[in-house]
Amino acid sequence: MCGAIGPRPIRPHNPEAGSKAISHAPAEPGPKTLFDALWAAPDTVPLDGADGDELTPARRRVVSLLAAGLTDEAIARSTGTGERTVRRHVCAILEILRVESRFAAGVAAAKRGWV
Known about the structure:
mainly alpha, 2 strands
């Protein structure tokens, strides 16, 4: 049976404690798999000639820090702005890039040569 491992003692040194069935779910795709899939996806490239000109200088800085994996809090500290401002920039960047996650935004920005 795929994924089933079978019963295992709850406490190996105390058999009276009982047992429980253990199974494992398929592993989530790793970051490399996700990156490769996003990189190959046709919807992470500009459809209408959109380029980095849509980004203000502040958003260009945010997208580069976003692509580096920084949190909103870290981006706010680095740029000297508030977290709320950073969240607004991130939201706008996701809309401009037509993606739904920060990770996808980093990939899409890299594909466009923005970072």
